[in-house]
Amino acid sequence: MRFTATVEIVGLEGMADPEGQTIERALPALGFAGVEGVHVGKVIRFLIEAPDAKAAAETVGAMCERFLTNPVIETASIRLEAGPAGISMPLESGSAADAVPAVDQP
Amino acid sequence: MSKRIAIVCFPGSNCEHDVAAAWESLGGSADIVWHTATTLKDADAVVLPGGFAHGDYLRPGAIARFSPIMSQVARFAADGGPVVGICNGFQVLTEAHLLPGALCRNSGLRFLCKTVECEVASTNSVLTTRARLGQVLRLPINHYEGRFTCDETTLRELEDEGRVVLRYWRDNPNGSIRSIAGITNRARNVVGVMPHPERASNPLSGSVDGRILLESLLVLLAQGQLSDGGRQLAPEMVHASGPAPAQDRRLQ
User: Quick one: B154 exposed, middle or buried, by C-beta within 10 A (0-12, 13-18, 19+)?
Assistant: First the structure.
């Protein structure tokens, strides 16, 4: 099966995030009140071939640990969708393989 | 006898010639080794220079860590061979787990390019044996991701074991934890520093304070303290913190 994996990487809890803090400070100046806990991270998306969602989640988890994140400073959450992005086929269950809607359509 | 360093050049490294020039000006010899090489030949020490290895993509050092030469560098380090990472090279060493911690974006989110003052915090490393404890060196920094960080346990170990080798003095330019500018591993043979000693090795560059760091390595190599088979800092070098004997300060 082919899955679209979306890996969302943010700094570990308690890590200084000067970019997030700067955005948080700027928002009220623009009239957006009541925002807190702004964190800036990065998103990595790719297609992966795996027998099932569990196997895909394990592989992506290993990738995160060994390469995609630096566990000293970062943590990742993984999202899996069956099929290529944009043609979402919600998965049955599984924490790392929670079905999510496809990305925004133009 | 000319001591030879291998300077590893990744795609995007840009300080390899500076390091070679500084090292040669002290009487050593240098080879620039492309990152796809699979041997360090007969290098006495390895330097990972500054720059932007592999474009700093993903994270600085994250991809360089997997360059073919890095398995040789890891083996060389495990055998006790001196390995020095400068700036981007420091970042590569942390990603390669040859040094603990990580280097994050500067707290002010600015690329810093200036000369700063650093205090020698330990003379027990291959890069600082000739320096004096507490000696303040004027060294250039040139980085966006130089804010050293690590978990509390690691920090305690670094401090308790005297493995912080350089600290920013008075002003902490990038927000590094405890003003850390350079650290060493337990065996003291792997050192990473954010400032550039090679760029402070010629009077024309405004400071020659970096020479003492490169000289430390050169003298250790020349004295055979780190020769094959017995690659550990000898006790008298490990604990030396006073000024170096004058006759040993130059090797030529």
Answer: middle
Tens digit of each residue's pLDDT (9 = 90 or more) over B19-64? 999 999 999 999 999 999 999 989 999 999 999 999 999 999 999 9
d(Cα A19, Cα B143) in Å, to the nearest integer?
17
Tell me how far apart the alpha carbons of residues A62 and A71 are, in angstroms, rounded to a whole number. 12
Between chains, do B105 and A18 touch, taking CB under 8 Å as contact?
yes
Residues 33-92, chain A, touching B (beta carbon < 8 A): 67-68, 70, 72-73
- Looking at chain A, the whole-number percentage of residues with pLDDT higher than 70 is 79
- CB-based contact B237:B58 (threshold 8 Å): no
State both tokens at B83. 């390995």
Mean pLDDT lowest among A85-89, B180-184, B243-247? B243-247
Is the dihedral angle over the CA atoms B219, B221, B224, B225 positive or is it negative? positive
Nearest to B107 by CA among A60, A96, A21: A21
Distances (CA, A) of B198 to B18, B33, B99, B227: 6, 18, 21, 23
Q: How confident is the model at residue A16 (pLDDT cuts 50, 70, 90)?
A: confident
Q: Is the ipTM of this complex over 0.90?
A: no
| Nearest-CB residue to A72 (from B106, B108, B150) | B150
Share of chain A above pLDDT 90, in %: 73
**SS3 of residue A25 by DSSP:** helix
Q: In chain A, where are the structural domains located?
A: 2-86
For CA atoms B245, B250, B251, B252, give the dihedral sign. Answer: negative
Whether domain A2-86 has CATH 3.40.50.2000: the reply is no
What chain B residue is nearest to A19 in terms of C-alpha separation?
A: B109
From CA B163, how far away is CA A86, in angstroms rounded? 51
- Nearest residue to A55 (alpha-carbon basis) of A84, A87, A78: A78
The B residues from 129 to 188 touching A (CB cutoff 8 Å) are: 147, 149-151, 175
Cross-chain Cβ contact B102/A73 below 8 Å: yes
Q: In this predicted structure, what is the pLDDT of residue A14?
A: 86
**Bridge partner list, B4:** B29
